[in-house]
């Protein structure tokens, strides 16, 4: 399993637009991807947008992606880049 | 005459007839079904149709309001395909043996309640999105059409609430204004209204009654009020206000894309001042040629720790990328004893304006400075960036800055981190800098004159002290001569010179600045078009 940690810099937090992009991105991998909001301890399947949005991730919150499956290495690297680029 | 107050989304005035927009009433009832598989087929085909409709709306919105605003329909599509949502509906149909209309509505309400209970205004507003997508599926299940606007003349749309899809589907040429009882300035409907440039009021303190339909009304977005059946005097007054706003806006809008050139052929650059990432929207909308002053303090103030390199990089990068190659001049940290952040650990000072601030902090604590420079240089790879250093008084400071810049670039190269090049310049905001500008000009690539501090230091007048108001003269010849001297010395050394202080927006001086040969004026975005208008009438 791979984990990616990131502190959200976007002023609006994980709002609809980046949440949508993240879900699309996560869904493209074979690996399972779980998103956790380290502030609240709650997790959601990163491939499901309602769950992702309901985590209420705000600016400054630390989030963790846990990635498990055959393409976890590529997924971890690409998702990390994605977070830096979009959030 | 009745008058109601609401939250204004867009400053503008609309006069016309009210149109009470009612959502199509659903007529379904909860029913027990026999065949869950057949009900699932009904549901799935309705859901697919809804997805296809949203696809169409997305493309439509893409054309009308741009990608950023159209994205909501893409998100709606994804919500409709969300497995948590679909599984909850299927579970309900199969275990409770109920019709799809009921299962979808109840599931939608459940998910919506989760968003509504969040302690974040933005997320609260998403509750409406879930209700919107569920209602769409139910409408299709019932074989209904979307409710549209049925009017031949343009109207003021009055509704309890409007979903984004209802908003975008209405014929824009038939809408004078939106007025809703619910909704927030953050709702997608408000955002769409703003980008469609339609005056709107949300959260209005009134009941939306059918009897309002067809009545004469005025929406005043400046005042944030709705007048129903206004009296003659009010109506005449609002119409005059509307004409005035309209004429001004029209005149300025026509200047978008035009050059800042005088009748006798002299031209000057008009850039914008801004203080946080969101401002870039206004900068672009007002057709600024670039960003002449990007204050970086927003990254440092209102927090408990230093911003990381990554945080700064992302903020700069977003602005630089969105400017698409137009120049972005970032001013390094300008914090001092009056603009304080506790974690800097600054001591109280007798004379904060003459104290430990800006570049003086950066040169004393180079680790803070280097983090910022690394972030700026990395962002420079995404567009055109200039760096501007505040509160300079001598050549030796610039030499020291250039050493630190060289170290930063060497470190980035060594680490294999990609970065871009940046033009280096200084603010001329101390009389000392203006007087030795001849020497300073040989060391840098541009000057930007900060007239607020330059005036305060030259006249020895504290601008915070209102008692000194009678002594203050923003056009004092000493200040104007220092400006002229700076421009001449800059040009002698072959570098460009601009002004980014308040004086830049003073249109009684625009002609004087042009005569002095100034190259750039940087002002708040709302002044750009007004100044362009002024410049085009000179000569």
CATH architecture of chain A: 2-Layer Sandwich
Low-confidence stretches of chain B: none
How much of the sequence of chain B is in beta strands? 5-15%
Which chain pair shows the most residues in contact?
A-B, 23 and 29 residues
Write down the Rg of chain B: 29 Å
Mean pLDDT over all positions of chain A:
89
Helix fraction of chain A?
A: 25-40%
The CATH topology annotation of the largest domain in chain B reads as TIM Barrel
CATH H-tier superfamily of chain A:
HPr-like
Tell me, briefly, the overall form of chain B: globular
Task: Write down the overall mean pLDDT of chain B.
Answer: 90
Number of E-type strands of chain B:
16
Large-scale geometry of chain A: globular
Number of strands of chain A: 4
- Give me the number of helical elements of chain B: 19
The structure class of chain A reads: alpha+beta
User: Which structural category do the helix and sheet elements of chain B fall into?
Assistant: alpha/beta
Output the keywords:
heterodimer, A: 87 residues, Histidine-containing Protein, Chain: A, 4 strands, 38% helix, B: 539 residues, alpha/beta, Enzyme I, Chain A, domain 2, Glucose Oxidase, domain 1, 3 domains, 8-stranded mixed β-sheet, 8-stranded parallel beta barrel, 14% strand, globular
Topology:
The complex is a heterodimer of chains A (87) and B (539).
Chain A: E1 2-7, H1 16-27, E2 32-37, E3 42-45, H2 49-54, E4 62-68, H3 72-86
Antiparallel strand pairs in A: 1-4, 2-3, 2-4
Helix pairs in contact in A: 1-3
Chain B: E1 2-5, E2 7-8, E3 13-20, H1 36-80, H2 83-96, H3 100-116, H4 121-125, H5 127-141, E4 155-159, H6 164-169, E5 175-180, H7 188-196, E6 200-202, E7 216-220, E8 225-228, H8 232-253, E9 269-274, H9 280-285, E10 291-295, H10 309-322, E11 327-331, H11 359-364, H12 366-379, E12 384-389, H13 395-415, E13 422-428, H14 431-435, H15 437-441, E14 446-449, H16 451-459, H17 477-492, E15 496-499, H18 510-516, E16 520-523, H19 528-536
């Amino acid at each position: 399993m791979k984990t990616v940690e990131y502190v959200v810099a976007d002023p609006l937090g994980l709002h609809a637009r980046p949440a949508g992009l993240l879900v699309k991105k996560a869904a493209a991998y074979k690996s399972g991807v779980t998103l956790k909001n380290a502030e609240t301890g709650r997790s959601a399947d990163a491939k499901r947008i309602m769950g992702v949005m309901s985590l209420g991730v705000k600016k400054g919150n630390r989030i963790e992606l846990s990635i498990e499956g055959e393409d976890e290495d590529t997924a971890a690297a690409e998702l990390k880049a994605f977070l830096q680029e979009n959030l | 005459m009745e008058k109601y107050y609401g939250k204004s989304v867009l400053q503008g005035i609309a006069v016309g007839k009210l149109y009470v927009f009612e959502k199509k009433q659903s007529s379904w009832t909860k029913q027990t079904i026999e065949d869950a598989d057949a009900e699932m087929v009904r549901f799935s085909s309705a859901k697919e149709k809804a997805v296809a409709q949203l696809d169409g709306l997305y493309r439509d919105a893409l054309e009308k309001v741009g990608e950023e605003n159209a994205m909501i329909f893409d998100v709606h599509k994804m919500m409709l395909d969300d497995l948590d949502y679909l599984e909850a509906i299927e579970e309900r149909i199969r275990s409770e043996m109920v019709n799809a209309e009921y299962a979808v509505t109840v599931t939608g309400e459940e998910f919506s309640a989760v968003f509504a209970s969040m302690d974040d205004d933005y997320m609260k507003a998403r509750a409406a999105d879930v209700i919107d997508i569920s209602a769409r599926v139910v409408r299709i299940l019932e074989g209904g059409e979307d409710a549209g606007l049925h009017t031949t003349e343009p109207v003021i749309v009055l509704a309890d609430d409007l979903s984004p899809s209802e908003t975008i589907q209405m014929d824009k040429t038939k809408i004078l204004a939106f007025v809703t009882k619910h909704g927030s300035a953050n709702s997608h409907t408000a955002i769409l209204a703003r980008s469609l440039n339609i005056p709107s009021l949300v959260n209005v303190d009134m009941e939306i009654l059918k009897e309002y339909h067809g009545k004469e009304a005025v929406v005043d977005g400046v005042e944030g009020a709705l007048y129903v059946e206004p009296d003659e005097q009010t109506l005449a007054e609002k119409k005059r206000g509307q004409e005035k706003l309209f004429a001004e806006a029209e005149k300025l809008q026509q200047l978008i894309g035009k050059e800042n050139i005088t009748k006798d052929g002299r031209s000057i650059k008009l850039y914008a001042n801004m203080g946080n990432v969101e401002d870039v929207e206004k900068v672009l909308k007002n057709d600024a040629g670039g960003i002449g002053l990007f204050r970086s303090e927003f990254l440092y103030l209102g927090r408990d720790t230093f911003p990381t390199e990554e945080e700064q990089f992302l903020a700069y990068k977003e602005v630089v990328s969105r400017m698409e190659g137009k120049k972005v001049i970032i001013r390094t940290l300008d914090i001092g004893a009056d603009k304080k952040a506790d974690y800097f650990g600054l001591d109280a000072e007798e004379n904060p304006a003459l104290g430990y601030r800006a570049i003086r902090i950066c040169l004393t604590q180079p680790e803070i400075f280097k983090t910022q420079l690394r972030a700026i240089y990395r962002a420079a790879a995404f567009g055109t960036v200039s760096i501007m250093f505040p509160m300079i008084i001598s050549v030796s400071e610039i030499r020291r800055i250039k050493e630190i810049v060289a170290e930063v670039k060497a470190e980035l190269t060594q680490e294999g981190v990609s970065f871009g090049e940046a033009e280096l310049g200084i603010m001329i905001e101390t009389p000392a800098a203006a007087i030795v500008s001849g020497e300073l000009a040989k060391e840098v690539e541009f000057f930007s004159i900060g007239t607020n501090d330059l005036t305060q230091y030259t006249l020895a007048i504290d601008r915070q002290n209102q008692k000194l108001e009678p002594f203050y003269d923003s056009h004092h010849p000493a200040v104007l001569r220092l400006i002229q001297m700076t421009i001449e010395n800059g040009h002698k050394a072959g570098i460009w010179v601009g002004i980014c202080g308040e004086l830049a927006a003073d249109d009684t001086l625009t002609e004087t600045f042009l005569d002095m040969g100034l190259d750039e004026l940087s002002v708040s975005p709302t002044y750009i078009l007004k100044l362009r208008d002024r410049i085009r009438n000179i000569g």
